[in-house]
Amino acid sequence: MDALMDPGVHLIGLVGLAMTAALPYVQQKFDWEHPVGAWGLIWLTVGCALGLWWAPKEAMMGDVGRILYVHVPAAWMAMVVFTIAFVAALGYLFSGKLGWDWTVEAACEVGVVLNGLLLALGSIFAKPTWNTWWTWDPRLTASLVMMLTFIGVILLRGSVRDPNRKATWTGVATIVAYLNIPITYMSVRWWASMHQQQSTPATMNGDMKFVMRLCAWAFLMIAIWFIARRWRLAKANAMADMPEPLALPQEAR
Amino acid sequence: MIPVAAEMGAIEGGWEFVIAAYALTWSVFALYTLSLWARARREES
Q1: pLDDT average, residue stretch A236-249
Q2: From residue A95, how far is each of A101, A199, A239 by CA, in Å?
Q3: B17 touches chain A (CB under 8 A)
Q4: Where are the alpha helices (DSSP H) in A28-97?
């Protein structure tokens, strides 16, 4: 099972992404992100079903360990989406193109949603395993700071009216906020933490690894769909906020 | 009832936490989708 499924789940993911990318060019009916989101939903349904009823119990945590299949992908995708925001922030600051800025706006918001989900899932996970809903553990605290800093970026963005200044400030603030991501990732290694260190494929049961990767692909596709839809909204808002072109005086026409 | 790690270390039960986690995931995705749809509609009108 392990040998069959381990590369297989990645193949399924890559083929799915390629198919969904090609589909709109063939049919010209959908925005490209809709098939991606649909695949994500299908795989999340399958992944959740397998996580609940097919995957084996975790050796120490028993059935509670099934929370891993949504908790870990939420953590991974929050970091991936914040990384997209970081790259887009650099893209805007170097190019000045507003498309990058709309990507920053979209990715920051989607990242905060995933980060909030991550913290809530972590809290649900912590109660049966640590016997507390919350503790100021380095990993938990860093994850909370990660969400709060990106909420700060969104609030800062909302407080500026001039489009260019808004984009520049958002880009700089996003880069500053991103500095905490490596700290969050490494916090379980750098400090004594109740949170376990990162598992590796070598330390996981093959069936558990398959479900984990399936759910991770599902989260990734749903996150891409969210970012793309939010990007379109950011673009529409920006267009609506732009001043009407002023008519030239009669003598200058 | 909250399952507590037994002396052997394995946790028994806890399905209510598992169901809560999966339900929360789907709820957050559904609510954010609804939020995007509502904002897009408001922008169109």
Answers
A1: 72
A2: 10, 38, 19
A3: yes
A4: 33-53, 68-95
The answer to whether the beta carbons of residues A106 and A161 sit under 8 Å apart is: no
B35 shares contact with chain A (CB less than 8 Å)? no
Instruction: Annotate A145-171 with b (16+ C-beta within 10 A) or e (fewer).
Output: ebbebbbebbebbeeeeeeeebbbbbb
- The model's pTM is 0.85
CA distances A79 to A146, A177, B17, Å, are: 9, 12, 24
Token pair belonging to A140: 């938990």
pLDDT at A1 (0 to 100): 45
* pLDDT greater than 80 at residue B23: yes
The runs of H, that is alpha helices, within chain A are 2-27, 33-53, 68-95, 98-130, 138-158, 163-178, 180-190, 206-241
CB A40 within 8 A of CB A19: no
How large is the ipTM? Answer: 0.84
Q: Which residues numbered 217-246 in A keep a CB inside 8 Å of some CB on B?
A: 222, 226, 229-230, 232-233, 236-237, 240
Residue A98 burial class via C-beta count within 10 angstroms: exposed 0-12, middle 13-18, buried 19 and up:
middle
Q: Which of B3, B24, B33 sits opposite A128 (nearest CB)?
A: B3
Determine contact: B11 vs chain A, CB below 8 A. Answer: yes
* CA–CA min distance B11, chain A (Å): 5
Angle between helices A180-190 and A138-158 (to 10 degrees): 170
| The total number of residues written for chain A in this structure | 253
